């Protein structure tokens, strides 16, 4: 390739980058959004991690004090395992994310866990709940039943990366993937390359399934990392929107 051609290619890349409305400065608070096609919405939650060793006895750890924040119907028989105590989405945040999808017919949650998000989606639409761990989905079914939304949910035990694009139309894929363990808290900026599965693979899978993706990621990630991944992986997304939310700012 000639030098001028290389330069042209580089300029083209730069212009493409500029056309993406990436917010490089994040402010605490809620940015309400529209519902454009081919979008990625990154909801970045405040970082929570277990400060003490968890046991299967919830009474002994601090998360138990947050039980009604995780599930307002906790006392009606909600089931969580150790991992879920600290990874499940707080109900008010899950309500906010579900409200974004209120006009959807079908949403897929690729990392459904015990159902914090799935239950809230299911108040508005049908939900395909995917998780690699069968026991999580059993707890999800129990929890969804307590909220009276089980009939809107179909559980799929599988690796999200293996999920074929369905014949039915999925409006939005929601992904709250594993962040790679509490080690990420030692760094000021979340190291996205530590994620397993890789965010590239997750986004590729999301893109096959639906035009819109919502990611739920730690607040200390660098938005430009998302933007680079989308450019480098040649994904079709045309708009990236970031919302930084906390329990205080999540309103529905
Ligand atoms: P976090 O780091 O947000 O706490 P978790 O480690 O709790 O994330 O993972 C969230 C959920 O994703 C868990 O229920 C786990 O079983 C599920 N999960 C992990 N990997 C996959 C995968 N490849 N496909 C589907 N579900 C997965």
UniProtKB/TrEMBL annotation:
Q: Which reaction does it catalyse?
A: a 5'-end (N(7)-methyl 5'-triphosphoguanosine)-ribonucleoside in snoRNA + S-adenosyl-L-methionine = a 5'-end (N(2),N(7)-dimethyl 5'-triphosphoguanosine)-ribonucleoside in snoRNA + S-adenosyl-L-homocysteine + H(+); a 5'-end (N(7)-methyl 5'-triphosphoguanosine)-ribonucleoside in snRNA + S-adenosyl-L-methionine = a 5'-end (N(2),N(7)-dimethyl 5'-triphosphoguanosine)-ribonucleoside in snRNA + S-adenosyl-L-homocysteine + H(+); a 5'-end (N(2),N(7)-dimethyl 5'-triphosphoguanosine)-ribonucleoside in snRNA + S-adenosyl-L-methionine = a 5'-end (N(2),N(2),N(7)-trimethyl 5'-triphosphoguanosine)-ribonucleoside in snRNA + S-adenosyl-L-homocysteine + H(+); a 5'-end (N(2),N(7)-dimethyl 5'-triphosphoguanosine)-ribonucleoside in snoRNA + S-adenosyl-L-methionine = a 5'-end (N(2),N(2),N(7)-trimethyl 5'-triphosphoguanosine)-ribonucleoside in snoRNA + S-adenosyl-L-homocysteine + H(+)
SUPFAM superfamilies recorded for this chain?
S-adenosyl-L-methionine-dependent methyltransferases
Task: Kindly provide the name given to this protein in its UniProt entry.
Answer: Trimethylguanosine synthase
Q: Show the InterPro entries listed in the entry.
A: RNA_cap_Gua-N2-MeTrfase, SAM-dependent_MTases_sf
A single MF term (Gene Ontology): RNA cap trimethylguanosine synthase activity
Q: Which residues cross the membrane?
A: none
Tell me the protein family, please: Belongs to the methyltransferase superfamily. Trimethylguanosine synthase family.
A GO CC annotation recorded here is: nucleus
Q: Which domain of life is it from?
A: Eukaryota
